[in-house]
């Protein structure tokens, strides 16, 4: 069992939902990013999803895109990201997932990318622009030691969700709403009906829900339909207006974790 799945399973056995926190590599600053990540873990994050900043992101809304712009101005690239993860790994065994588009991976070289992931003890990868139809061509044998996390959407058919479940490892990433990442003010009933449907189809993996979750109340609403939740834009937005000790962000993570336990 992979470290990601083991962590989610362990939490679920205690009637807790996993809390995955998304951070953009090197945002808001490279200098204290490792300190930020460790503080986020201490506040209650169970898994870290670290986004590689790039200019042609597929599914990210304006908040995360803005953080990518800042990180790119900070000269964050794949090598920088791996170095940051290696520094985190020296002090923590928290499961770490890299989120990227395919272009940086291909430009870096797939075999080289995987080797750097292994060296940095990255547990999983999310590459949203590799569709199910291109899975076998992209994820060759060199990826066998890393969890490949695929995404379902509200428009995914039962057959497609099952196929995604069969190909995924670590967990299945269930996108809650149609559109890009970002905070939502409310969720219509069809959102929860679809989540219930998707959760009933996913059999081989744990399932985490992402996109739009920003508050403790959201976590409570989504918890019956998943094994964990992923919070990204709300964290990045709070970091954008936080102090040097990340006070508001740390408190938000603590609130989210309390909700994941209730």
Task: Explain what the structure shows.
- This protein has about 260 residues and is an alpha/beta fold.
- Helix content is about 45%, strand content about 15%.
- The chain contains twelve helices and nine strands.
- Strands 5-4-3-2-1-9-8-7-6 form a nine-stranded parallel β-sheet.
- Strand 8, helix 10 (about 215-220) and strand 9 form a beta-alpha-beta unit.
- Helix 2 (about 35-45) packs across helix 4 (about 80-90) and helix 10 packs parallel to helix 12.
- The protein is globular and about 45 Å long.
- The mean pLDDT is about 90.
Write the layout of secondary structure elements.
Blueprint (H helix, E strand, L loop, with lengths): L2 H11 L4 E7 L8 H11 L3 E5 L10 H12 L4 H12 L6 E4 L2 H7 L1 H10 L4 E3 L8 H4 L8 E2 L2 E2 L5 H10 L4 E4 L13 H13 L5 E4 L5 H7 L5 E4 L1 H8 L6 H15 L1
According to DSSP, the number of beta strands is 9
- Count, helices: 12
What is the overall shape?
globular
Class based on secondary structure composition and strand pairing: alpha/beta
Strand order of the largest sheet: 5-4-3-2-1-9-8-7-6
In percent, how much strand structure appears in the residues?
5-15%
Mean pLDDT across every amino acid position? 92
